[in-house]
Amino acid sequence: MSRPLRWALIGASDIAATRLIPAIRANGQSITSVRSGNLDHAQSYAQTHGIAIATTSLLEAVDRDDVDAVYISSVNTLHREQCEVAAKAGKHVLAEKPLAMTVLDAQAMVDACASADVVMATNHHLPASPTHRVIKDLVSSGSIGDVRAIRFHHAVQLPDRLAGWRINAVEEGGVIFDVTVHDAAAIAAILGTHAKSVRAVGMNQDNDPSGPPDAVVTSIEWEGNVLVQTHDAYNNAHLPTGIHILGTSGAIVAENCNTGDPVGDVWLVKNHQRQEISIPDREDLYIRTVRQFQAAVHGQGSVIVSGQDGVHSLAVAAAAYESARTGKTISI
Fold first, then answer.
1. Lowest mean pLDDT among 46-60, 118-132, 172-186, 272-286
2. Taking Cα atoms as reference points, which of 152, 174, 177 lies closest to residue 241?
3. For residue 224, what are the CA distances in angstroms to 83, 94, 147, 252, 299?
4. What is the C-alpha to C-alpha distance for residues 121 and 135, in angstroms, rounded to an integer?
5. Which of 72, 93, 21 is nearest to 308 (CA)?
6. Is residue 147 predicted with pLDDT exceeding 80?
């Protein structure tokens, strides 16, 4: 039996508290240390979550014999440096999306992990979703023929506790780098291909107009002659998220499926008749992600979303951001 991983948390974040800490412990793994830029916050966070070591020092948190892997969920602009330090220390890396704020920095993270021969994964949760896995199986089995178009509705209501940098920090990219990047990873996982170019319209509908976009619509040319449309926003409290996939011999409709919870429903549609598709399991997305990460570390499988996959999703988000800024179609 593989030895359970021991983790350092780089970033005393909400996502770590609500998703990763429970997932790590549900898999029988443990957390050794937590690092934050604010010592009081690190200590309070460690006490709340039963973590022995709280520090502001990256090396103190990571470069330890009782740490096997790190989870990076700090602000996006710090990811590259923290990943490179972890890789140099021989630690496996699970990094939050977006991997960085530039494709160059993200690729450097992937290269650092490859050079150190450590496993790297990107914490895009949607490819681990039970509904998304069913959708992927339907597409790959040819149930709807050749895919021609995808509509991806990922507009949500942003909770107050998660506002902060998402709506105030221009350098963090707003909804495009926070949500559109997830769309790109999810669509790539479903189709097994990559985006070619992006045209985007972004705006700030409900927050400071000088801040980053809080709503965006994209038109994406995808490999395989597929047209993709996405809508991402922080101001939808009413309509469930969803996916429509149009194929040459059928279609797929999914509702309430672009969330961090194992929820949602999927239908196969032919000749305007819906057939509900059974979801065989409702396993927590993050428990599945962490379990497969450990398996990959022990050479027993692959991560769900690789570091290189994270570079591709970031490239789509970066292109969408540039398109929204310039009004031009941006090649990827």
1. 172-186
2. 152
3. 34, 30, 8, 18, 32
4. 22
5. 93
6. yes
Please answer whether residues 177 and 165 qualify as being in contact, where contact means their C-beta atoms are separated by less than 8 angstroms: no
Q: Is the peptide bond before 4 cis (omega within 30 degrees of 0)?
A: no
Burial of 13 (0-12, 13-18, 19+ CB in 10 A): buried
Type of residue found at 233: A
